[in-house]
Amino acid sequence: MSDGMLATDRSYAESVNNGPLLRVDGLSVDFHTEDGVVHAVSDVSLNVHAGQIVAVVGESGSGKTVTAMSVLRLLPKSAEVMADAIAFRGTDLQAMSPAELRKVRGGPVGMIFQDPMTALNPVMTVGAQVAEAVLLHQRKPDKKAAWARAVELLRLVGVPDPAQRVKQYPHEFSGGMRQRAMIAMAIANDPDLIIADEPTTALDVTIQAQVLALLKKAQAETGAATILITHDLGVVAELADAVVVMYAGRVVETGGVQELFANPRHPYTKGLLASLPRMDVEVDQLDPIPGNPPNMADPPAGCAFHPRCPLARARCETERPLLRDVGAGRRSACHFSEELA
Amino acid sequence: MAAFLVRRLSINVLVFFLITIAIFALVHKTPGDPIAMQIPADQLNSSSAEFIAQKRAELGLDQSLPVQYWHWLTNALQGNLGVSLLNGRPVTEVLGERIGPTVELMGVGLLISLLIAFPLGILAARRRNSWLDYGATVVSLGSVSIPVFFVALIVIYVFTLKFQWFPSSGISDPTNPSLLNTLHHLVLPAVILGFGNSGPFMRYVRSSMITELGADYVRTANAKGAPPTRVVLRHAFRNSLIPVLTVIAANLPQLLAGAVVIEQVFAWPGMGQLAVSAVNQHDYSVIVGFALLIAILVLVSNLLADVLYTVVDPRVRLR
């Protein structure tokens, strides 16, 4: 085994003992557009521990996908990423050379994207694309072994008749089957972290449950920690250990999934939960949050949520609340979070 | 695929007939008379008028246009395009000996244009709005907007007259007709033809690559840890070929048009040179034969584009 591998093993051991598997600290992402600078993500911090499933929740445009993409530097060049640290197993990914980063991409960190219709290359067979994920991380590239592994992976994610279907093109796969192939690519090299960006959003409702069950199974078998980007609180309740709620590019609340669902400490989280249909409580009608998410090119002053907030008062319009501990390992960014306790 | 080809071919045959009618009518309605053309103006008198009438009758030119067309068509379908009005040689033979040099010039010219367009287009797409991109834009604009004959004259002045590196006339040295010598003669005309056609190709490669490089599957390939060359060439490039191939196939007739001019400038003994002299001398049957070849080229290149689609894009199944 090479020295490089030993070094990674050591840092892996350290990360298990001393800190989180992934630590994102003070992440901000700006997009430079013709209409000026858009602060898509501001000062986001989150930790993911080995084996943990962390859900990042928020409406469209809340910055959750941008946060996830910044980890492996997958944003377009128009994005300016600034962070105090994006550390994986104790190593800062920002300081890595492109070649070093490529070893992490698809290796110890696997990604699953939102839309399996466009995330697969239409002119390459599914097998070639899964095998490529294997091939790129083999120490000695072996095409035959990579193809055999591709068949094995597709079998693992529940693609029927994988030996035949590796030869098919993405358009010959259904949406659910394509997402299974995406998952196969993400777990190809036995990752320690899977970043799944809205993995079920583009799928039929009936297929969503199957793919979720598969994600759960893949997570259980590989023991990989998972960042699950979603706007579906049902999915969060089903899978996640911890939740990070984002609004207008900032983290507004974090906490364990049970505590957060039982007793939200931010009015936005509370609003999200109230707008969810429930089986256990009888309600006359659903309570959507009034208004729309803010325009990120021109966000409201003070607390970005104040125009839609039932608790809002004068202070909220001028002073942006900081994320602070509200007890039991939970954090909330609301001036009046005590009122929700 | 077979059903598609049969249907497309039958449509093409119909189009082809319409084209022959148009060509035939247009050529025969052009002012001027091929027989009178060969008699010096000061010798035109009543006896020569009689001679002309006699000649016209011999060649069937005195009959009505539909009758002439019918004769021509029935012969053409049997592979007989008539004889040259100038020297009586069969048109197929006259054209046949000219096809080789033209195909050679067009083929090498196309190759050169692609060798310019693909690397430049891909690089411009990858470094959008860089100096390289702007430079490539200037080059491609130049290739489109500077007339071929003008470029040809400059090139001849520099490389033939000044430096004497390349010959600028003919297909080979009659005393030394080796392959190397032919290639030496081919350099200037082929490079000029290639350069003239590279501009539009490059623009299409660039814009197609920009679209593909922004696609989701490119991000997937990056997320798998693929190196940039692999992402660009294996993933984005193959997808970008889909629209570009159509453009290339549709541009083949354009390439021939360029070749006609270049053959004239470089005394290249191809079809273009033949066509120009045939037009000047009202050699109807040769003009019609040449126009026919162009029509076939256009129809075949469109068909080729459709078939190539299925090769590069597995989603397209021809029905």
Written account of the structure:
The complex is a heterodimer of chains A (341) and B (319). Chain A is of the alpha/beta class. Chain A has a domain at 3-240: 3-Layer(aba) Sandwich (Rossmann fold). Chain A has twelve helices and 13 strands. In chain A, strand 8 (193-197), helix 8 and strand 9 (225-230) form a beta-alpha-beta unit. The longest helix of chain A has 18 residues, at 205-222. Chain B has 319 residues and is mainly α. Chain B is 75% helix and 0% strand. Chain B has twelve helices and no strands. In chain B, helix 4 (91-126) crosses helix 10 and helix 7 (179-213) packs antiparallel against helix 10 (252-265). The longest helix of chain B is centred in the middle third of the chain and has 36 residues, at 91-126. Chain B starts with a helix and ends in a 7-residue tail after the last helix. Classes of the chains: A alpha/beta (341), B mainly alpha (319). Chain A binds chain B through residues 72, 74, 76, 98-99, 102-107, 110-111, 113, 115, 118-124, 129, 132-133, 136-137, 169, 171, 182, 185, and chain B through 214-217, 219-228, 234-235, 238-239, 242, 312-315.
Overall number of domains of chain B:
2
* Rg over alpha carbons of chain A: 21 Å
Unreliable stretches of chain B (pLDDT < 50, length at least 5) are none
CATH class type of the domain at 3-240 in chain A: Alpha Beta
| H-E order of chain B | HHHHHHHHHHHH
- Largest sheet report of chain A: 8 strands, mixed
Main location (chain B): membrane
Transmembrane segments (chain B): 9-27, 105-125, 137-159, 179-199, 240-266, 286-312
InterPro entries (chain B): BPD_transp_1_N (IPR045621), MetI-like (IPR000515), MetI-like_sf (IPR035906)
Domain ABC transmembrane type-1 (chain B): 99-305
